[in-house]
Amino acid sequence: MAGVGVDEAMPNDLKNTAEQIAVEAAHLVRTAWVRMRSGGEVAVDTKSAETDVVTAVDRESEELVRARLERIRPGEPVLGEEGGGALGGGVTWVVDPIDGTVNFLYGLPAFAVSIAAQIDGVSVAGAVVEPVSGRRWTAVRGGGAWLGGDRLSVSAADRLDLALVGMGFSYARDRRVRQGRLTADLVGQVRDIRRRGAASLDLCAVAAGWLDGYFEHGLHRWDWAAGALIAREAGATVLLPGEAADLGEDATFAASPGIAAELRAALAEGGAAEV
Ligand code: LIP
User: Fold this and answer.
1) Spans of the chain, pLDDT less than 50
2) Among 3, 152, 159, 260, which is least packed, fewest CB within 10 Å?
3) Ligand 1 mean position to 197 CA, how many Å?
């Protein structure tokens, strides 16, 4: 990472900042979720498709994150799902204010606030905080991955036919159909499939050994920036968009090393590159 003086303490400071702010934003999101469960209304708009929703809470969460970052790390660029932005030359903060927005809207408690610090487009610190469970997933590049105070390590899976694999679908209907065909091809080769609807949590689940693998096409940087670091620091084989032509130019992949090659080959043979 040329161009930015990264002293030894910096990544840990960045992780602490990401975690602290993600906890605050998660509290805001949880308060809204509780209010919605007791009949409260929330304003909802749509984005790329009628099923691709953004709520007022997504926006409020990102506004809080941006305000806190400006106070704690003034002048550092922020790339957020709702407010946009771009990668800068030094530290850039990559923010998904609610990852799993549809789950949040339905009241399904599988969503998170994801904040990562990237330098030259590479995640060096990250935090994923779940508003409902309170689980705090964190990682520092080269410093390991943690769930609260517990060190994370991927599963010891070594057989694809016994692997539990997560995946996700695009909001674009035509692509969802192609992804469905890929999943239909894979489902007979693995133990089972899980589709939870929040990429950051799927990547954290691989880090914890709760999933043996995960793949998805079409994720945005804010979906994977923190979770992919957490998975990699827990020992997963991680391939980011642009790193695996055989899986497709916008594929995200994470798997326990014992099944990574087999899962990658099965997806490639199933036509992942054409999804
Ligand atoms: C979600 C991702 C998920 C994907 C959903 C959606 P959002 O992000 O985390 O993996 O399958 O379609 O993109 O939109 O809730 O921040």
Assistant:
1) 1-4
2) 3
3) 6
pTM: 0.95
Structural tokens at position 61: 């969460």
Q: Which helix (H) or strand (E) holds 212?
A: none
Work out whether strand 136-140 and strand 144-147 pair parallel, antiparallel, or are unpaired: antiparallel
Minimal CA–CA distance to 230: which of 148, 168, 172, 164? 148
**How far, in Å, from the CA of 220 to the mean position of ligand 1?**
9
CB hemisphere CA count around 113 (13 angstroms): 32
pLDDT tens column, 60-87: 999 999 999 999 999 999 999 999 999 9
According to DSSP, residue 84 is labeled B
> Which residues form the pocket of ligand 1, taking CB atoms under 6 Å from any ligand atom?
81, 96, 99-101, 168-169, 171, 197-199, 216, 223
The residue assigned the tokens 């032509």 is 245
Helix (H) or strand (E) holding 3: none
Ligand 1 atom closest to Cα of residue 103: 15
Radius of gyration for the chain, computed over Cα atoms and rounded to the nearest angstrom: 18
- Non-local (6+) Cβ contacts of 54 within 8 A are 44, 45, 46, 47, 82, 101
Instruction: Give the distance, in angstroms, between the CA of residue 12 and the centroid of all CA atoms in the same chain.
Output: 20
**All domains of the chain in start order, with CATH:** 6-151 (3.30.540.10), 160-274 (3.40.190.80)
Q: How far is 231 from 145, CA to CA, in rounded Å?
A: 7
